[in-house]
Write a structure and sequence with these properties.
Blueprint lengths: L2 E8 L4 H14 L4 E6 L8 E8 L13 E6 L2 H7 L3 E10 L6 H5 L7 H10 L1 E5 L1 H5 L8 H11 L7 H11 L6
Parallel strand pairs: 1-4, 4-5, 5-6
Antiparallel strand pairs: 1-3, 2-3
């Protein structure tokens, strides 16, 4: 089995934790895993991209363009920016709740991510999730990276079983967020 999973978002959304959970779950199931993060200005709301490559045929931690089986996109503009990594028959799990970049908030551009999700809907198979709505009953958006991970695992496309993903979530996430 071989799976390439790309996780993208902005600083503070939990992309790195999600990638570590996926990698740990795959290793728990006996797979070879390579991973890498591109963090940049993450602490200031900048782009964060994590590559997770599962399987024995992976010799580099970076996913080549057009090879990702799954993209977990925690922010719509980041999904569009990283779409070049997704396979033609890949699937994207996309958060529709936008994080307005600092530059957009300075000039009140009205960015809400809807044009990005419209674009994505015409370009790839997507599962759209509004993290704000899904997290509202829990009182915090700190859960949404785990919810997105659960949706990807539940789709059957992630490359790890739902049970092993849940095991790793319970092992690596503070109890109050599980």
């Amino acid at each position: 089995m071989h799976k390439d999973v790309l996780i993208c978002g902005v600083g503070g959304q939990g992309t790195v934790l999600a990638s570590r959970i996926i990698a740990a779950a795959a290793m728990e199931e006996g797979s070879s895993v390579h991973s890498a993060e591109t963090i940049g200005m993450a602490q200031r709301g900048g782009s964060v991209t994590s590559h997770v490559r599962i399987g024995d045929e992976c010799y580099s931690p970076l996913i080549p363009f057009g090879n990702a089986d799954v993209m977990l996109a925690f922010e719509p503009a980041e999904a569009v920016r990283n779409l070049k990594y997704l396979k033609a028959d890949g699937i994207a799990v996309v958060n529709t709740a936008a994080v307005m970049p600092v530059t957009a908030s300075l000039n009140d551009s009205g960015y809400d991510g809807s044009s990005m999700t419209d674009y994505l809907a015409g370009k790839c198979r997507c599962i759209f999730v509004n993290a704000d709505e899904v997290c509202r009953p829990y009182g915090s958006s700190k859960f949404f990276n785990i919810i997105m991970l659960g949706i990807a695992a539940g789709s059957g496309k992630l490359g790890v079983s739902r049970e092993t993903a849940l095991e790793q979530i319970e092992k690596r996430v503070p109890n109050k967020y599980v």
